[in-house]
Amino acid sequence: MTLQLTSERKESLIEQCKLLLYQKKVTIRDLAQVIGKMVASEPGVKYAPLYFKDLEHFKDKSLKGNQGNFDAIIELDIRSKELLHWWIDNIMFSYKSMSISQPSVIFYSDASKTGWGGFNKTYQLTDNGFWTHDEILEHINFLELKAALLTLQSLGHMLHDTHIRVCKKNRNSSNKEQKVFISTVKPYKPVTKSTIARWVKTVMESSGINIEYFGPHSCRSASTSAALGQGLKLDTIMKSAGWKSAKTFQKFYNKTIITDNESNLAQKILPSSS
């Protein structure tokens, strides 16, 4: 069973798309009203967001560039015109299934900051690759999505008119295999943050550090401050620590290194290699 828009709604949407394409003056408000109708049509148009999301982005960008003035006149870009033509050409034949069948082919993809990997479970095919220098600088969420795309392009290029499922690794899940520290006591579950903090505190105390004054989080200040003192570039320190602003490091973590070896936390944690 399928759902689709009524003939009246289809014709109305087509007419409004044509007005945006051919009228001399288009305001942001005109575009926003048509996008609203596209969003409302989603229950009856398969993959509708693919054909209005870029229009939303263009609208938001135009609105920002005109200080929030919905009545500002804009010129549609090429992508926006392409999407409007898609609605004009396809809305009359669009529908959406009420139930979705099981996928015929299943893919798995994953990414790290060095490369990507893909697996076609149905046909037992694998592929992988490394990121370019520019790609390494991208956010991990971007790399995860690109890994899924590359997996489809590499291992699914032979498929046509096929229902597929892509399983992207969720780095926010709590699966055991994604945990770095596992308890040494049965049932060997991932340890909590408090347990790790207790371990660090124990090591600090055994190293002669005054744990009444310094806590486990002091390691973050000590290690980064010592690294800066040894000549490591600030941008490298920020990237390793996950800081976006140098002000965060300067304000909260950049501490004076005490030269007295008896009380020098940084030296205890990061002893000189010389």
TrEMBL record:
Keyword terms of this UniProt record: DNA recombination
GO biological process, one term: DNA recombination
One Pfam family of this chain: Phage_integrase
Domain Tyr recombinase: 169-254
Entry annotated with the keyword Metal-binding: no
Gene Ontology molecular function: DNA binding
Keyword field contains Transmembrane: no
Origin superkingdom: Eukaryota
Name of the protein described by the UniProt record: Tyr recombinase domain-containing protein
